[in-house]
């Protein structure tokens, strides 16, 4: 929106042309989303507390979590508001990728909001029935996959790029739709499973989003992408604004979500952010790099799959409790130690993912 205004004002003063630069608008996206989160955070927490929208805690979980009961939840709505406003203000609204990622994020956020509302407000422990939850997730993931497939203008936009290996790519063809569906829905649920401790999910999300912003900028630039031999996707650079908005909104939310948390994001935030990361990775053709950088999300998901599979097949549990972060808690690790160590692991994995830009 502001980009259009700046373009108009350029007719009268060439100085407004500075807003054409992606890097500047990316930075402004970070700062705008951060300001919205920090300024509106206290208001949101007071409202959630007033309406008694508090977190329910599992009785079979770590004892240290019992004190979290009643902590305001559904705070992820603040993250979505900050991301949407920042993107609409600083993004190029004629760019199809901006709308695809934004709409997927908001749709998955809506699914999470209904689930949270039923659990917290209506006191229905089941929340949104699983079949309906996955139906709407599947609808969003499949819709985005079909849209990206049928609007692809170059072969590289539907190829699977293998990181660290020079000039190796697999033509997916129609299988691109299925693959993209699993990336978006899978990353959405992976982030949701990770969101179990104060700040545990949001900081890795911020780190991965920041790294994806770099991929978007480089992959959307013909010169840089050719030099680095990464896929060139025209228009993908505009997603740096969206990634910046995730970073800013996430850091602003972490101000209130850090241990001991004043508010939790709930499914409304976790499902949306995971879907956003998955969709961005698909656009810039870095799905496998996302698996590397989001290794914490992957480990948490795999721990649940292994736990459930082992219990059904053998009657035994591999971990003391799943997802993985609860296992370490029951091993005696204090919550802040689990959180910070998972953050450190994410920093390392993000650096490995970024190394794929040059190591080929």
User: Which stretches are poorly predicted, pLDDT < 50 over at least 5 residues?
Assistant: none
| String of helices and strands | HHHHHEEHHHHHHHHH
Distance between the termini: 39 Å
Largest sheet: 2 strands, antiparallel
Enumerate how many helices there are, as a single number. 14
Q: Beta-strand level of the residues, as a percent range?
A: under 5%
Name the strands of the widest sheet in spatial order: 1-2
Q: What is the arithmetic mean of pLDDT?
A: 92
Which overall shape is indicated by the principal axes computed on the Cα atoms? Answer: globular
Q: Strand pairing plus helix content: what structural class?
A: mainly alpha
* Helix content bin: 55-70%
Number of strands: 2
Q: Work out the radius of gyration.
A: 20 Å
């Amino acid at each position: 929106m502001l980009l259009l205004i700046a373009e108009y004002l350029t007719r009268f003063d060439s100085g407004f042309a500075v807003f054409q630069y992606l890097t500047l608008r990316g930075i402004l996206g970070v700062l705008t989303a951060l300001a919205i989160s920090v300024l509106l955070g206290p208001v949101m927490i007071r409202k959630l507390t007033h309406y008694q929208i508090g977190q329910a805690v599992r009785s079979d979980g770590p004892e240290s979590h019992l004190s979290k009961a009643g902590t305001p939840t559904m705070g992820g709505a603040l993250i979505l508001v900050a991301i949407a406003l920042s993107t609409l203000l600083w993004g190029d609204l004629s760019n199809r990728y901006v709308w695809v990622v934004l709409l997927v994020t908001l749709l998955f956020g809506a699914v999470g909001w209904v689930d949270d509302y039923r659990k917290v407000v209506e006191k229905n422990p089941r929340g949104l029935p699983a079949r309906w939850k996955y139906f709407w997730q599947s609808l969003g993931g499949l819709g985005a996959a079909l849209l990206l497939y049928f609007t692809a203008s170059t072969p590289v936009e539907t190829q699977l790029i293998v990181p660290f290996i020079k000039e190796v790519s697999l033509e997916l063809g129609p299988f691109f739709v299925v693959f993209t569906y699993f990336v978006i829905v899978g990353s959405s649920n992976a982030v949701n499973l990770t969101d179990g401790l104060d700040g545990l999910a949001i900081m890795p999300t911020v780190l991965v989003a920041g790294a994806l912003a770099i991929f978007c900028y480089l992959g959307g630039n013909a010169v840089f992408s050719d030099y680095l031999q990464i896929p060139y996707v025209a228009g993908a650079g505009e997603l740096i604004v969206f990634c910046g908005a995730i970073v800013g909104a996430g850091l602003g939310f972490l101000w209130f979500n850090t241990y001991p948390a004043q508010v939790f994001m709930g499914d409304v935030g976790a499902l949306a952010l995971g879907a956003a990361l998955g969709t961005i990775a698909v656009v810039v053709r870095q799905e496998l790099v996302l698996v590397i950088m989001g290794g914490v999300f992957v480990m948490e998901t795999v721990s649940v799959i292994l736990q459930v599979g082992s219990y059904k097949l053998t009657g035994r549990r591999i971990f003391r409790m799943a997802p993985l972060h609860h296992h370490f808690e029951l091993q005696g690790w204090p919550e802040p130690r689990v959180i910070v160590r998972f953050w450190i692991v994410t920093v390392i994995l993000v650096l490995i993912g970024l190394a794929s830009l040059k190591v080929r």
